[in-house]
Amino acid sequence: AVRFPEVEVFARRVSSMALGVLSGVCPRGPVRQVASLVCQCTGSLARAISARALSRGTANGAAAAQVATTIRARMDSLVVGHAELKRAITLGIVAREHVYVEGPPGVGKTMLAEVAAEATSLDFYFYQMHRDTRLQEMVGNSVIVREVDATGGEVIRQKNEPGGMVTAELCVLDDVSRAPGEALNILLRILNERKFGGDPIPLLCAIATANPADDAYYNEPLDPANMDRFALQVQASGLIQQQCWDDAANVIQLFASHSGGVANGTDEVVESVSRELLDAAYAELQAVEVTTDVAQHLVAFLHLLTTRFGLTEHNSLLTDRTFLVKAIKILKAQACVTGRDRTAPEDIEVLSFLTTFRVPPAIHLKIPSILADIVERKIAPPAALAPSRGALAGSEELLTTKGTASTSNSPDTGQAASAEAGEDVVMSPRHPVPKRLMLDKVDTGQPPTSADPEQDQVKTLLQRLSRGKGKL
Q1: Would you say 298 and 351 are in contact if contact means Cβ atoms under 8 Å apart?
Q2: Global pTM exceeds 0.85
Q3: How many CA atoms lie within 13 A of 101 on its CB side?
Q4: Alpha-carbon dihedral 130, 410, 401, 420, rounded to 10 degrees
Q5: Are 371 and 301 in contact (CB under 8 A)?
């Protein structure tokens, strides 16, 4: 049951402790010699146990768990905190789905993406996008080639020298939203179909980072078509903003000590994951059984979002591609990284990674509690779902929310703060939508009085506004 990353971390800690103990009783020269010897011995032991544990784990069908443990250990060794972001990146690599990370500068988005990429043995490509990004910088340049044909004549033709984006197996695209439309449009097919110019490319996973879509950062959001290519989405924030003071103190101590900011106290890193192990993990994922109750929970969740919260194509991004196809892969990945060959009801909590920027922020704040209610069967399957206000078992307002809300993985800290303060939070779509009147759906508890539900919503909203009970 021994996992090799823990063994190696333990070995490093032993060598670090030995160095600390010997520093008080030995001259400096012998300390370095003994410390070097301890590091060599514990390193050899760790590698030997690693190889044995790896072969045994893979033989027993635990390749996905090995991949997740190794990648997570690598990230933990270099970055403190950010547990949800680490989990999303790990699931993305195992499921071979793309990950989008948005957050302010200096919170570790790019570093975590690079560390995760380096934890694998995949061909890795990093690109810093900018306003003047040229398409050729990512996909390669066209060159003129002169060749001799079979008859001895000369042939001149155009040939594309492939760039990093179409040759890498794992890409990190930093500041992706700053790229111009020409470059982003090409990403549509590359990310979704893993093809360029009709030819398949080896890309398995792309991790994109961006600053918040806010005027303060001179940044705009990705358009919905590009955003939907990233199955997993995470809103990142710093340890200070999250008020994770224990982790903050740990970072200060690390950078104040001799370790120079390395979380495990040594410059060594955990061994990388081989492509063979990644392929074995993906084979395990494909063999995972999606149980009937999990499938029903997924349908109940989508039914609730569309009927209870009134989410449509005009105020959300609930696509069949993401929630009927890619969601299954994410659920399977969650099962196999925990060592199971079939999904369990609690696995649906990972669906919160899919809604971060696909639903209005105030609804996303409720997703964890909604999913928990579904697992506990407080919300009935669609066939038995009643249209009453009790469907959420007390967790409540449709497009206006009051009370305390969790801010984990929240795409809008401002709305979270308003919810905490008990103020009304009026929802709006996260991404640009067609220019039309965006009205919050108002739940009156009464059936529509005409054939046009939107007209009824307008009338009801105007009545509430006239009484001072609504917001436009």
Answers
A1: yes
A2: no
A3: 30
A4: -110
A5: yes
Q: Which amino acid is at 288?
A: V
Nearest to 264 by CA among 35, 74, 21, 112: 74
Q: How far apart are CA 14 and CA 290, in angstroms?
A: 43
Q: Are 458 and 247 in contact (CB under 8 A)?
A: no
Query: Count of CB atoms within 10 A of residue 94's CB?
Result: 28
Q: How far is the CA of 190 from the CAs of 6, 38, 187, 204, 208, in angstroms?
A: 37, 48, 5, 11, 14
Distance CA 374, CA 395 (A): 12
Token pair for 297: 């929970």
Q: SS3 of 400, please?
A: coil
How many angstroms separate the CA atoms of 210 and 86, rounded?
16
Q: Are 89 and 110 in contact (CB under 8 A)?
A: no
Rounded to 10°, the helix 361-375/413-420 angle is: 70
CA distances from 79 to 82, 84, 111, 259, 269 (A): 8, 13, 8, 13, 12
Do the Cβ atoms of 318 and 306 come closer than 8 Å? Answer: yes
Burial class (CB in 10 A: 0-12, 13-18, 19+), 26: middle
The tokens for 354 are: 């899919």
Q: What is the pLDDT of residues 281-317, one digit of tens each?
A: 999 999 999 999 999 999 999 999 999 999 999 999 9
Burial of 301 (0-12, 13-18, 19+ CB in 10 A): buried
Residue 187's SS3 state is: helix
pLDDT in tens, 344-380: 999 999 999 999 999 999 999 999 999 999 998 877 7
